[in-house]
Amino acid sequence: MHRWGMVIDLDKCTACQTCVVACLAENNIALIGPEESAKGRTIHWIELVPYIQGEYPHVKVRLIPRPCMHCDHPPCTKVCPVYATYLNEEGIVAQINYRCIGCRYCTTACPYTVKYFNWYEPRWPDEMRGALNRDVSIRTKGVVEKCTFCHHRLLKAREKAKAEGRDLLPEDYVPACVEACPSGAMYFGDLNDPFSTVSQLSRERRAFRLMEDLGTEPKVYYLSEGM
Amino acid sequence: MMKLMDRFNEHRINRREFIKCTAFLGGSLIASQLQWTQELMRRAEAGGLTPEEEYELIRPENILYSVCLQCNTGCSIKVKLFRKNGTAIALKIDGNPYSPFVSLPHLPYKTSPFEVTTLDMAICPKGQAGIQTAYDPYRITKVLKRAGKRGENKWMTIPFDQAIDEIVNGGKLFGHVPGEENRVVAGLKDIYVLRDPKLAKEMAEDVAKILKAKDKKKAVEEFKQKHAQNLHYLIDPEHPDLGPKNNQLVYLWGRKKGGRGDFALRFFNDYFGTVNTHGHTTVCQGSLYFTCKAMSEQYQHNKFGGGRKFYWQGDFENAEYILSVGSNLFDANYGPSNRNLRLIPRLAEGKVKLTVVDPRLNKAASKANKYLPIKPGTDGAFFSGIIQWIIKNKRYDERYLSNANKAAAKEANEPTWTNAVLLVKIDKNGIPGSFLRAHEIGLTPIEKRKDKDGKEFDFEYLVCMKDGKPIAVDPNDEKNPVRGDLFVDTEIRGIRVKSALQIIFEASSVKSMEEWSRICGIPVKEIEEVAKELTSHGKKAVVDVHRGVAQHTNGFYNVTSAMTINLLLGNFDWKGGMIAASTYNTTGGKEGQPFDLGKLKPDKITRFGISIIRHDIKYEDTTLFSGYPAKRNWWPLASDIYEEVIPSIGDAYPYPIKALFTYMGTPAYALPAGQTNIEILSDVNKVPLYFACDILIGTTSMYADYLFPDLSYLERWEMHGSHPNMPVKVQPVRQPVIAPVPETVKVFGEEMPCSFEALLLALAERLGMKGYGKDGFGPGQDFVRADDFYIRMVANIATDGSPVPDADDREVKLFLDARKHLPKTVFDPERWEKMTGQNWRKVIYVLNRGGRFQDYKDVYKGDYVSNQYKLLINIYQEKTAATKNAFTGKPNPGYATYIPISTTLGKSPKEYGFEEGYPFHLLTQRDITMTKSRTIVDYWLLSVMPENSILIHSTDAKRLNLKEGDKVKIVSATNKEGLWDLKNGIKKPMIGRVKITETIMPGVTTFILGYGHWATGAADIMVDGNLIKGDPRRATGVHANAAMWIDPYLKNTCMFDPVGGSVSFYDTKVRLIKV
Predict the structure, then answer these.
(1) Does domain A4-223 have CATH number 1.10.3720.10?
(2) pTM reported for the whole predicted model
């Protein structure tokens, strides 16, 4: 069984936002205006979180790309009254949109604030709808949504492997953000395979995870010198 | 809660309701065609896709390779199409693996396109969002004519042919506009008066004589006598050097690349015969270009000439140390795709050291080994300190600098050489002038030589000193190596001379290290450490600069200083050193290329006269010379001076114009103090006729009388070229990948989409120009369509040097299948095959790969880059030293030196009271998600940053009692109200939200360019009586360019660098007022 995980090398990341836009495009994420955005209602499955330490000019700046951590002990799934969010057998924290009743317990429980409530009916300029990804369903107003590690890509890759009569290879499945990174700063793969790139990197000296002390056991690792 | 939702609903507008007008994409047929994808998507969700619909995007015939234009980098892209019922829409854009702009190493060129369908390379967020630029509902599809006053946002749609007729013939075109009932507009036929090529050539030659003449009056009289019959062609017979009336048509462009550029210049320069074709270089990094042009002037016969408008950047793939000054790596500066690939892995692995010098702690600084804050505008002082230290400590490349000619360079295995050892004459005031000629000291007489065409000329030897003895030097001599003494200060036969390097050393030593340090704010220890680091990596260290260094009033000398350091290191053409761009030729003329487009110009006209921006000419040589200060600046060393075009039109200096055409540029938005341009554009007396070509109603094109819809970058041809940091020889080809959005029109009997090209072809047809229509290129070669031009260019690319292979049958079929959704108006393979004959399959080979790219294995040769500059580089610029400042009359220095920020009259802005009470130094910055004026239409990008802000340091915020999110207004001494006056009754205040940060120098403030629009879909407009509502999301944020200083002497343009032409972007002082 696979256990999917991600590694993000902050020493290579230049905060170019490509992963963010790639995710918007891939996952049909609804767009809202500045007024609503100012209320904190923008939906970004992956977002760049600024981390600035020190005083000018002795400042350490990191902009940390933050997708869902896909925790092994996710706090969000425990509070869902309707089992709309759960940890699947491959380690992905999944969300069943049709089951969600919009109580927003999970958005509160998640320490990484990666769960987003749809405050509005999703809308795009009409002409833009032409560019929507037909592999990803559109979430309606009143449900919570989140990063799925581009789960639809896994399904597609598995189907393809099946059609070709072979096993799924780890390189068959790459989320959109990882694929789009122009700096080669993002890695994805099977953490259960001790020889996979992500496994090896996750054991590196520079590796750390966000808020490890909470015991959530995230499957997104970061690499950074001196952090 | 109810109230909240009401408010919310006010801010969301259902586009389906408001764009009803068919003049916009949002109201057109295409919009409804696009909706099939929604239906498709619903079926996909239900698992109901047919097998054909699956895996559509990885089929080779659903992928077209082209070039992005969401910024100027021009990354090669693969656009994935989804097809239905013979039409197709672009669904996704990724990077093209054949191209070095998005991959390292890139695929071998011979790789079959069938093998690479699943290979998607990364591009940046703007590139991904490009689909939204192409399918923007605010794109116009029909020709619009102004129905109200200029800029009033009232339009009517008119037929293309009517618009062309009106522009060509003129007349009372705006009788329907109050106040313009009786205004007669001159049409192009009245401007295009001198049409006889023979006469034009003769008059041009005679005007050249006037410019050379000592007695101008006499020369003008002679001219008038000789040309008594022809004086009516001239703008002013008393000043024949202003040229013919044809010059009263001005063509001004913004982001234009090769191909389209050549297409336009054929029309305006070669046939219309106007000298007024001006680009936008100086708003970008003009002084970087024109310094490098001055440094690349070559010694020809007896003077310097033939300089190239280009510049050098560092080879980041191999450099070991990079000093990056004022260059916004990772956010701008040709990236991130290209830069990150080459720099990021090496930085992470510690293979390269990076020092970033900037008043902002930018993204590159956050990755750098060292960050040094510098006071804005003092880069020259910092560089002077470095130069002084390097020379004092003898850390320069002595061998490189001592080479006086090509032969010596060759002997030393150096591709380039300098004039560091040549002797410069010093006048009685101690000012360096021109190089000493050998005949002046009786060393070697003037030689009679013959050029390639057998024409005789006088060759003058220059002089260097070797072991105290003068030696004659021919810098281009390939046979007899001459090396000279580096530091010379002596007298020969009563002539005081110094070596060029001596002059540079002295200029860097006019102040002590401590004084340089005090000026720039960087500690002496740090300057010394940088200098030491620069000189500790052999040829693999570079000083890499960009806008932050160039866009000041002292830009030219800042860049000269930076490049002088590179010359001290001798790193040009070396792996890891300074490199220049290299491209496959498009215009032909080389052996084996089928179409010499430079010569396929039957009966082309010679243009002559002084341009409206007075470039490429010395004030003192003209009949307009009337002492100092001149009314406006003269530009003997720079061109494409964006900030001078419309303001000069406003002053009618040197002459009034009759018509203006603009393309893909918005001087009002992009220029510092751009509001000065709005005032002139909205005045019909100053600009009697203004027509523009744009994909939407933009922040400047909204002032046009006629607006022609254009093709977006996914619909058109362009030869994008390269950039100086790219070591690979390339020619990315932009080609139509989606069907054209604008309406179809008929020109020369051919159907084509309304576009830039259709407009120019139609004008050429109506004006009866030679060089167009049947046999336009020459016998048997018609020029009636855009592709007649561009396909010929692709054939030239394919055959430059060793030709590309022929496409095989399978590739030919792929070529046709992949374009089956394109209408005949833009895709006509039979015609193209006939046009290119035996080269047809080579053309296909190039287009199937999105251009031509040199193989990675050939990019470096040993320790050198293989695409070399290989010429003399001037450390001392004789040509510059022979020019004078048009305001002060003082000679311009020809060497690296520090000049403080000043107004055009050479005074400190302080003297005008510009700084008192304005405590903040205003900068601008580019963020990765925005490209100045054109990406506000991309909602994916707006989602990342819906609004920009005004950044200040936390200590400043505390002092001013400002909190995060507070609204403040930006005001300056030349815009005390803090307003954009749009001259249409609307005054847009420069108000933005404060963002408090630790990443900026205290006392400095900045904002991200790209927000605060007043058009581009942000404003309400009337078309044919229908109200088209603007989208408020496009109007958010602040654009503070209007706060930038207006020059106190010129009064209608921003401050600028009087030598290199750059606008002053980073010199203004402002105050922030809490609103």
Answers:
(1) no
(2) 0.94
